[in-house]
Amino acid sequence: MGAKAARKELVLEGLDCASCAAKIENNVKRINGVEACSVNFVTKTLIMETTSTKNESIVDEAKQLINKLEPDIRINDKANSSGAKQIVYLKGLDCANCAAKVEKHVNSIDGVTAASVDFVSKKLMIEAPNENVLQKIVSEVSISIPKIEPNIEVELEQHSISNEKESFGMKKLIIRLSAGFLLGAIALIFDLGVSVELPLFLIAYLIIGGDILLRAGKNIVRGQLFDENFLMSIATIGAFAIGQYPEGIAVMLFYQVGELFQSIAVNRSRKSISELMDIRPEYATLKVGNEMKKVSPEEVHVGDLIIVKPGEKIPLDGMVIEGNSMVDTSALTGESVPREVEAGSEVLSGFVNSNGVLSIQVTKEYSESTVAKILDLVQNASSRKAPTENFITKFARYYTPVVVIIAAMLAIIPPLVIEGALFSDWLYRALVFLVISCPCALVVSIPLGFFGGIGGASRSGILVKGSNYLEALNNVKYVVFDKTGTLTKGVFKVTDISPKGDITKESLLEYAALAESYSNHPIAQSILTAYGKEINKEEIDQYDEIAGHGIKIKEGGKTILAGNKKLMKKEGIAFKEEEVIGTMVHLAVNGKYAGFIVIADVVKEDSKKAIEGLKALGIKKTVMLTGDAKRVGEKVGSTLGLDEVYAELLPHEKVEKVERLDSYKQKNEKLIFVGDGINDTPVLARADIGIAMGGLGSDAAIEAADVVIMTDEPSKIVTAIKIAKRTRRIVWQNIIFSLCIKGVVLILGAYGLATMWEAIISDVGVTLLAVLNAMRVLKVDRLS
């Protein structure tokens, strides 16, 4: 008897390529002992059946093979696929290079599934297979990070630092720098003799840069070279070694002043971004009996009643039970026009109540509320880093050591090979090299740029789940739309009333309303809505519903027929068939054809603007996929100016169409699929970028898509692409500007045409300008 087969499920985090999924499936099937294997690309799940006696070793072999085939994929057991996550706060993190160092260290800790440091918000997100492993990792991190970076304190909860404390720290630094500058100036201006000048210069140097030297020393002991502390220490100590005392002090002074200004600029940037997402409610007013009490939103449960007064934020998702008011939805949707709510209206956390008092019954716990999910998405978006960010991190890692090696060669080789060359001259040039080699401008401004872009997008009602998706939007050349609920409103509406003979439009609509008065069908409801008057059903003498045909009634001595063309033919009513877009309801009164009413899904007012905007941005092809009839799809397509329309499609056929369009792309081009996020999950997952339309409050939309348009406006796709292009433009401005300035000063320094003064001023100046430039990303109202 053969060994009993065991079923094993693995989650392949990072699987975003259908061909990769097929490759993994084919190779795992070949492993000896694997009875069957299938990879679900949409759910990123691998299911395999193995011989139970060798189950663990086969699974291990499969994991090793997958890692070999696709090194970027992280493999989790299905049981622990959700894993455990925790955010810790890195108080004192003011250096982007230190952030990269911490991230690399935490990722190397045994048991860490993934770790990402967000320099902008000073957060470290740690993922582990389960809660027990996570707690051990957090304990280790709390001990090990301060050893790597002594200035960083690891906190499990976010504590706001008071302005007074920050101000005191800055005052202390300014006093220290002023004292050092004063001593240095005295030694430089007055002729006090070498025996007095040297000690004064040395004391001034230690007052200004003692903390930098201490940090550099601690890092050297740990074997961590080539950070900014090491570079500044070597450059300034070298300046002292060749007798350039004023320049050694000046370099350290300007570096510290630059760090101070950089810290102020970065903190202001962080504050600006934080204010964009200032939607978290501070409290909820809970009604218990006749009492009101203020509580944390986390303490409120489903079914509880909360009271929201004018000017207050709605703290949790719920249903209005009593009261009516106008609510400001701009914090979530980016829309400035208030929305009216009344008893029976759904409201979402993050809305601001403008005038009336609202009694709201809570429908979701705070952790599941809209505001909590949006905040979580935006704040954790930085864990999905853009290729440009990853490139700069790697670039900085190699750039600084290379410059240090070149500087060493510059100091040693020319005096040996060039006749008459002085070692002190070439050492000075090498020190200029070291000063300018700091990559701060790049590693600080680029994360700020992407984080600002995501923050600005969220303020416009666009949730982008990561800077990788924001950057990918720059390369979009194909946009594929679902029809219903995306380009159209997804609701039936009377679009045409066509009476025949001497019957008026009003009379024809009234006859139809009478006939449909007992029906709950969407078509019937659209006719009743269009009629808009109360119907006295007692006036209807007879009501017969003819299955598959329509309805026959008698009212006021008249026989009224309302239905499809089969009903007309069945009753022998002569009529002329006409080509229309939508569903036709034919009517006859007393055996005579009275006309028809057309009911159709309505195209959104915003859709045409969206298509025109996409074409203006250089999109190669706009395509619509729909399950509707061909003539309906083609009518919508021609109205909007779409390039291609595919109709009468089943869900799996939509995936096939997207895959065929995907095959037309060139190497770096991207394809977007825009759907409602509920019925289109497989296609959203298959596209390079999945965009959920009208996803506000929809769990399925937020889960399935890479980008969520929180309003119902297709034109927000154009806005998202413009924000992405603006972000990339500013990021690359910083990269090119920083590298060009550094390159010029490096060349001038090598030829002896630039001093340390130019080197440090250009380094500090470039960093500050890059940070200020990065903040322009937030000004989405200036999109061109």
Automatic annotation (TrEMBL):
EC top class named in words: translocase
SUPFAM superfamilies: Calcium ATPase, transduction domain A, Calcium ATPase, transmembrane domain M, HAD-like, HMA, heavy metal-associated domain
A Pfam match: E1-E2_ATPase
Keyword Transmembrane helix attached: yes
Entry's localization field: Cell membrane
NCBIfam families: ATPase-IB2_Cd, ATPase-IB_hvy, ATPase_P-type
Protein name: Cd(2+)-exporting ATPase
Species name: Cytobacillus praedii
